[in-house]
TrEMBL record:
This is Ribosomal RNA small subunit methyltransferase B. GO terms for molecular function: RNA binding; RNA methyltransferase activity. GO terms for biological process: regulation of DNA-templated transcription; RNA methylation. Belongs to the class I-like SAM-binding methyltransferase superfamily. RsmB/NOP family. PROSITE patterns: SAM_MT_RSMB_NOP. Its EC number is 2.1.1.176. The keyword S-adenosyl-L-methionine applies. The active site is at 423 (nucleophile). The lineage of its organism: Bacteria, Pseudomonadati, Planctomycetota, Planctomycetia, Planctomycetales. Residues 213-482 form the SAM-dependent MTase RsmB/NOP-type domain. Residues 1-22 are annotated as: Disordered. The keyword S-adenosyl-L-methionine applies. Keywords: Methyltransferase, RNA-binding, S-adenosyl-L-methionine, Transferase.
Length: 482
């Protein structure tokens, strides 16, 4: 992305006088504010959107447009560079944001709104009191429009980019890298993924698997809810949805139900009564692998916002002690809100210090370590996560993950069980990390692993059961789901 040159003092004064209004006047203006704040502060769109004055209808749309822009940023930039005649590093960063907004709408919005996409984006320049930008923005966006055709194809091609439903929208020029000579590079630009991740996936997967995986990073899978089995039977809940004419489907996991239409959570049966939480099927495996019993003393080490904590409590039939620890005060609040809504009383929360995590003098029977990770198994849901991925970041995460395993192992009773889980598909923070940790902890062994690749219907993820060697066999069972 182009870097803004350091402004001279008189320009700073001029810019201060030209402060844009803080209350969004239009949806595009809201998108501009959200993207600029994300660019300059790193604050996530979802975290900042409530600070803007937006009505309930416009807010989700502004979030969707902004997140799509962030997610498809690399593809958008590739197209824009084709249409911008001046050197890209001479375009101011906020002007580039406006170009990205227009290109986002042209490339991914409905075909019949192209005229509005250009004229309304140009209007943003005036709203921001930059009338001098209008001609340039208009010219570049008309260039993007000229690249578009109304054709789609099922095949990847250097003149086509992934659009929707596994179809590629055809451009009238080959602007992406040549497929035969530079296949991974094509994938990076067309699917808007960072180079280091593309290189990893190219090494690990066949071409078909690679393409399928990249498609899964573009859109969130359908929403699933996990029913609170203490409060409700799946068959009854599904029946109540059908009576309320809400389309849902049962899945291979009895308590996980797919929601097949757009609906507010509060309009699903039993929201207030705590009959369900939103949770993807892939995320349900870790707590089940830990399999805590009623009456046990259990630790959920990285618990916020509490989705798996409540699942552990349900498996314990709300009997015993379940300590949920977190380093984030906001996430502690969320765990407490979730426990309250689900009417679960065995959960206690504890805010801990990242550097010096004192948790308890008493050991635990079972421990879940749902570690912070690169999120590569849920990229379709987390628009910004792909841009955090790097080898350096992975090393930093590995240090935290190793530390969490150390902390947990010291708090486990002699015959206790611990499960390490991530929402990543990177062996470096999954299988390989567990192997490395076991090398320095020969008293432990891994007795089961589950690795799930994401696809159009579900997230991916990883979980591993780790037990003390005296009480367990060598690896019995490695379960690979793809
Ligand atoms: C993958 S999320 C956990 C999701 C949660 N288990 C659930 O199902 O809702 C990882 C969490 O670990 C927390 N975290 C990060 N570093 C930590 C540490 N050193 N100790 C404990 N928690 C940590 C983060 O704040 C984040 O909430």
């Amino acid at each position: 992305m182009p870097q803004r040159k350091r402004p001279v003092r008189s320009q700073v004064r001029k810019q201060r006088q030209k402060q844009p209004p803080s209350i969004p006047r239009t949806i595009r203006h809201a998108v501009y504010i959200l993207i600029e704040r994300y660019r300059t502060t790193g604050q996530l769109v979802r975290d900042q959107v409530l600070e803007l004055f937006l009505n309930d209808e416009i807010r989700p749309q502004a979030v969707a447009w902004s997140e799509r822009l962030i997610l498809r940023q690399r593809t958008i930039d590739r197209v824009l560079k084709e249409c911008v005649s001046r050197p890209v590093d001479q375009v101011q960063a906020s002007l580039w944001t406006i170009l990205r907004m227009g290109a986002n709408e042209l490339l991914f919005g409905p075909a019949d709104s192209q005229h509005a996409a250009i004229s309304e984006t140009v209007e943003i320049c005036r709203l921001l009191t930059h009338p001098e930008w209008t001609g340039f923005v208009n010219g570049v966006l008309r260039g993007v429009q000229r690249l578009l055709t109304d054709q789609v194809t099922k095949e990847i091609a250097a003149n086509a980019y992934p659009f929707e439903n596994h179809e590629y929208r055809v451009l009238n020029k080959e602007i992406f890298p040549d497929l035969e000579a530079h296949f991974p590079s094509y994938m990076g630009f067309a699917f808007s993924l960072p180079e280091p991740l593309i290189r990893e996936w190219d090494r690990r997967y066949t071409r078909e698997e690679f393409i399928e995986l990249c498609w899964s990073t573009l859109e969130a899978p359908p929403m699933h809810v996990r029913l609170n089995r203490i409060a409700v039977e799946p068959a009854q809940w599904v029946e109540r949805c059908r009576e309320a004419e809400i389309a849902v489907s049962t899945t291979e996991v009895p308590e996980s139900i797919r929601i097949d239409q757009k609906v507010r959570l509060s309009n699903l049966p039993g929201f207030e009564a705590g009959e369900f939480v939103v949770q993807d099927i892939a995320a349900t495996h870790a707590a089940k692998l830990l399999n805590p019993y009623p009456g046990q003393r259990v630790l959920d080490l990285c618990a916020g916002p509490g989705t798996k904590t409540t699942q552990l409590a349900e498996l314990m039939l709300d009997r015993g002690e379940l300590l949920a620890t977190e380093v984030s005060p906001r996430r502690i609040e969320q765990i407490e809100e979730n426990a309250k809504r689900l009417q679960i009383s065995c959960i206690k929360t504890l805010l801990i210090d990242r550097e010096d995590p004192y948790i308890s003098d008493e050991p635990f029977d079972a421990i879940l370590i749902d570690a912070p990770c690169s999120n590569t198994a849920v990229l379709g849901k987390r628009a910004e996560a792909r841009w955090r991925y790097s080898i350096t970041e992975l090393h930093l995460l590995n240090d935290i993950q190793m530390q969490l395993l150390d902390t947990a192992s010291e708090l486990l009773v002699e015959d206790g069980r611990m499960v390490y889980s991530t929402c990543s598909i990177e062996p470096k923070e999954n299988e390989q990390l567990i192997s490395r940790w076991l090398e320095t902890h020969p008293e432990f062994t891994c007795s089961e692993m589950k690795s799930i690749l994401p696809n159009a219907n579900r997230d991916g993820g990883f979980c591993a059961l780790v037990e003390r060697r005296e009480n367990s066999e060598e690896i019995e069972n490695v379960d690979e789901l793809s």
